[in-house]
UniProtKB/TrEMBL annotation:
<keyword id="KW-0472">Membrane</keyword>
<dbReference type="GO" id="GO:0020037">
    <property type="term" value="F:heme binding"/>
</dbReference>
<dbReference type="InterPro" id="IPR020942">
    <property type="entry name" value="Cyt_c_III_dom"/>
</dbReference>
<dbReference type="Pfam" id="PF02085">
    <property type="entry name" value="Cytochrom_CIII"/>
</dbReference>
<feature type="transmembrane region" description="Helical">
    <location>
        <begin position="12"/>
        <end position="35"/>
    </location>
</feature>
<dbReference type="GO" id="GO:0009055">
    <property type="term" value="F:electron transfer activity"/>
</dbReference>
<feature type="domain" description="Class III cytochrome C">
    <location>
        <begin position="45"/>
        <end position="94"/>
    </location>
</feature>
<keyword id="KW-1133">Transmembrane helix</keyword>
<keyword id="KW-0249">Electron transport</keyword>
<keyword id="KW-0408">Iron</keyword>
<dbReference type="InterPro" id="IPR036280">
    <property type="entry name" value="Multihaem_cyt_sf"/>
</dbReference>
<keyword id="KW-0812">Transmembrane</keyword>
<dbReference type="GO" id="GO:0046872">
    <property type="term" value="F:metal ion binding"/>
</dbReference>
<keyword id="KW-0479">Metal-binding</keyword>
<protein>
    <submittedName>
        <fullName>Cytochrome C</fullName>
    </submittedName>
</protein>
<keyword id="KW-0349">Heme</keyword>
<keyword id="KW-0813">Transport</keyword>
Length: 218
């Protein structure tokens, strides 16, 4: 009987299958890696700003509380950006002639807001309120990272659905008392779960409902 395949055909078939599976596996890894990359999640990217504002200097070195500039964070859906008048409460007295602050002085003179490039932003289809999270014991650092150490502001956490769901599934260990909401150095204690459950009970957090679709998509 005539041999249809050469002796090396089986070897070539094995190599073809191994190569095909490697290509598929590599493609999946590449797609997942790209989806989680800084380019897609916009993390660790420092966008150009009209004024090189340093949270490290203001919040870290000077110890200015987050709520001094983001005054609406406890009362509304957005933290808000400070009006120029807030900046000038200090900079009318210090660094009043600094060249880098010329856009701030011009903004005040023309009564027009500074056009900051927003760093922390969510898609329009996501329902989110800062005041609810602050009231329930979620600290600024939980979502924004150690912003008090950022010379130039960037997004430290990827605001993906997975990021939000991980917290909504088990928020207790992450909750903190009101005195520590803006404390960037806060870390959970050994009794973090028990303490968080006490906060959740006091605030009326219903654990079983936090992962329902309507909570974030309305």
């Amino acid at each position: 009987m005539v041999q249809l395949f050469s002796p090396v055909a089986d070897t070539w078939m094995r190599l073809f299958l191994i190569g095909g599976l490697s290509l598929v596996g590599g493609s999946v890894v590449a797609v997942v890696g790209f989806a989680r990359s800084a380019y897609m999640t916009e993390t660790d990217i420092r966008p150009q700003q009209p004024v090189p504002f340093s949270h490290r200097h203001h919040a870290g070195e000077l110890g200015i509380d987050c709520r001094y500039c983001h005054s609406n964070v406890e009362m509304g859906p957005r933290a808000g950006l400070p009006p120029t008048e807030t900046c000038m409460t200090c900079h009318s007295e210090i660094w009043s002639n600094a060249a880098m602050l010329e856009p701030v002085r011009e903004s005040l003179a023309r009564n027009t807001p500074i056009q900051w490039t927003r760093v922390a932003k969510l898609p329009d289809y996501v329902f989110f309120r800062h005041d609810i999270h602050i009231a329930k014991g979620v600290g600024c650092e939980s979502c924004h990272g150690r912003i008090d150490q950022m010379a130039l502001t960037y997004r430290a956490k990827a605001f993906t659905m997975e990021f939000c769901i991980d917290c909504h599934r088990d928020p207790a260990p992450r909750l903190r008392l009101p005195d520590h909401i803006t404390d960037m150095a806060w870390r959970p204690t050994a009794n973090a779960r028990k303490e968080g459950e006490a906060i959740a009970a006091h605030e009326g957090i219903r654990f079983g409902e936090l992962t329902h679709c309507y909570v974030c998509h309305r």
